[in-house]
Every structure is written in structure tokens, then in C-alpha cells.
Write a structure and sequence with these properties.
transmembrane helix, BCAA_transport_permease, mainly alpha, amino-acid transport, 11 helices, two-stranded antiparallel sheet, 4 strands, 76% helix, 294 residues, transmembrane, two-stranded antiparallel ribbon
């Protein structure tokens, strides 16, 4: 029983990490119709920004309020990166999807190379609060506290995104733009501002994933964002392109399947099981769990 509880909570923690990355991807594709292959760079910016701030920003550190100040710095850096990418690179290419893919793939590769040039390829030990390094007993299992940190952060982000989409003016513009972008523009609403805002939100969520993922893994590397981005894309496709709640459900499924398959079969089987899950969902429901079928 304790093993199942540990695997379940670890799977939920990993799924929470995937959701933090996938939520921004889902919003960006749903509104702007952009497959952002540089999204992993936002995660890396958040991770390295938090790591740097913990050691250099006055008041920041690896414990207490200092840790959250470092995380806030990393999230702000990720949001800024998202805005700059949208304004400088994506905005001129909205009607050119092939160029979008080439530019974002190139940016992702260049960003990793830049991080390696500045801080090297070796993993950097990530600041980890003492409480996150501890464990909590749940039904006989000693569960690392960083799992609860990820689950709590993902729940807060999910609620905040749903509140933004359903209760705010720009949220309504985003939802309407997902349904019919041309009609929203014809009504005189500046959809471009919503585009930039969505990129900022996506960059901030991915940066938060980078910061908390550093706590989960214990270190940060330049290529970490790229490896996690693969699973985030799988989550977005399974959940339904443009659906935040669908991404949340898909992230839970992917995290649980990966953890249980890796434990009960062998290393690497969990990743293959996730691909099989993707194939099964697409065969049964090509638009994803929450995607539109019409």
C-alpha cells in the first residue's frame, strides 16, 4: 500500500510539472495558433533565473521568503522572455506557420547553446529549502515534500488560469479568439495585445515549472527544458489543443502512467507507455480528451 501511495503522489507531482509547462503551450496554440518549440527555453530561463537570484539577488536565498523571492525573479524573467519572443520573432510570422516552426526550433537550440556558453554543460546544484528536502508520512509512505510543492503550485495555476479565462475581460477575449479569431478582430478588439499577454502567461508558467522542477530534480541543466517539452507536447495533444482543463487531466494521466510503468516493468518503459497512451487516445478521440470533434 505504501508503495502505491508513493508512486501515485510522485506521479501526480511529475504530472503537475508537465501541466505547468503544457498550460502555456495550450493557451499559445489555442489563441495564436503557434506551435512554440522554444517553450522549453522559457523553462530554462526560469530555472537559471531562480538559481542565479538565490545566490546574487539581495534578499533572495535558498530558504524561507528568500526562496520565493528567487522564484518570483525567475518567473518574471520567463514572462519577459515570452513577451520578447512574441514581439520580436513571432508577431511578424503569424501568417507563416512553417517559418514559425523553424524560428522557434532555432531559438530553442540557440538558447541552450547560450546557456552552455555562459554557465557550462555541467548540472548546477539548485537551491532547495530545507522543508522541501524533508518527507511527510502519508498512509505509511514517506513522500518527499517537493511532490506536494509541485501539486500545490499546479492547482493554484489551474485555478488562476480558469479564473482569468472566465472572469476577466482579456480572458474572455482569449476564449473568443480561440473559437473565432477573425470575428474577434472584426469587432474591433485588439487581439494582438491578447497574443502578447498569452505569451507572457505561458512564459511565466513554464518558468515556474523550471524553478520548481529544479527543486524536484535537485539541479538544473541547459537541456532540461527540451527533454520536458516533449512530454508537455504529449500532454497538450492528449488533453486537446487549446484546452487548459484537458491539459490538466492529461498531465495527471501521463505522470501516473509513466511512474507506475517504470516501477513495475523497467526503466524507459514508462516513456514508451506514455507514447502508447497518446496513440490510444488519438485513435479513440482524434481531437483529444477535451478537444472539439466537429
Amino acid at each position: 500500500m505504501s508503495t502505491i501511495v508513493l508512486l501515485a503522489l510522485t506521479g501526480l507531482g511529475l504530472g503537475a510539472l508537465y501541466f505547468l509547462i503544457a498550460s502555456g503551450l495550450s493557451l499559445i496554440f489555442g489563441l495564436a495558433d503557434v506551435l512554440n518549440f522554444a517553450h522549453g527555453l522559457f523553462l530554462a530561463v526560469g530555472a537559471y533565473g531562480t538559481w542565479w537570484a538565490a545566490g546574487h539577488l539581495p534578499g533572495a536565498g535558498a530558504s524561507g521568503a528568500g526562496f520565493w523571492l528567487a522564484v518570483l525573479f525567475g518567473v518574471a524573467a520567463g514572462a519577459l522572455a515570452g513577451v520578447l519572443v512574441e514581439l520580436v520573432l513571432i508577431r511578424p510570422l503569424y501568417a507563416r506557420p512553417i517559418e514559425q516552426v523553424l524560428v522557434t526550433v532555432g531559438l530553442g537550440l540557440a538558447g541552450v547553446a547560450l546557456l552552455r556558453a555562459v554557465w557550462g554543460s555541467d548540472p548546477r546544484q539548485f537551491p532547495k529549502p530545507s522543508w522541501a528536502a524533508g518527507t511527510t508520512g502519508v498512509l505509511g509512505a514517506q513522500v518527499p515534500n517537493d511532490r506536494f510543492l509541485l501539486i500545490g503550485a499546479a492547482a493554484v495555476v489551474l485555478v488562476a488560469l480558469l479564473a482569468f479565462l472566465r472572469r476577466t475581460r482579456y480572458g474572455l477575449v482569449v476564449r473568443a479568439g480561440v473559437e473565432d479569431r477573425a470575428m474577434v478582430a472584426a469587432l474591433g478588439i485588439n487581439v494582438r495585445v491578447a497574443f502578447t499577454l498569452v505569451f507572457a502567461i505561458g512564459g511565466a508558467a513554464a518558468a515556474l515549472a523550471g524553478a520548481l522542477g529544479g527543486v524536484y530534480f535537485g539541479n538544473v541543466t541547459p537541456g532540461q527544458g527540451g527533454s520536458l517539452l516533449i512530454f508537455a507536447f504529449i500532454v497538450v495533444v492528449i488533453g486537446g489543443m487549446g484546452s487548459v482543463p484537458g491539459s490538466a487531466v492529461a498531465a495527471v494521466l501521463v505522470g501516473l502512467v509513466q511512474q507506475f510503468a517504470n516501477y513495475y516493468t523497467g526503466a524507459g518503459v514508462g516513456e514508451a507507455s506514455v507514447v502508447l497512451l497518446l496513440a490510444a487516445v488519438l485513435l479513440a478521440r482524434p481531437a483529444g480528451l477535451a478537444g472539439r470533434t466537429a
